[in-house]
Design brief:
Blueprint (H helix, E strand, L loop, with lengths): L2 H7 L8 H16 L8 H29 L15 H13 L5 H20 L5
Length: 128
Amino acid sequence: MDDLDRILSTEIRLTPSPEFTITVMAAVHRRADAPPPLPFPWRRGALGGGLCLALTLGTLLLAALLPVVSGVAPSGGATGWTAGGAGAAAALLRARFVAWPPTAPALLLLSLAGSYLAIRLSLRPARE
């Protein structure tokens, strides 16, 4: 039997020191007594995301329909998204934004109110 077999065949009894055992058990008890971590507010996040999405879609819908409803035709010669590609689309958007001065404050207030509401909902204390 060589030295490696002799060393591996003998069983050495290892025991931790009492201080180590006490320290480990104290850490285990501290961890067990600690309150559980706070859960992530998925419902509030989904509510805020849905609210932002709804406000964005509503604003885009309002932007698309406003010239038609008010009778203001967009200037610039663009007839739609497909007339001339991206340049025509940019001209159409510029024309619609230029035609908005009376409604721009209302849209700004709408977006600010939506942002305020989303922040207030996210800062509300959670119900137990």
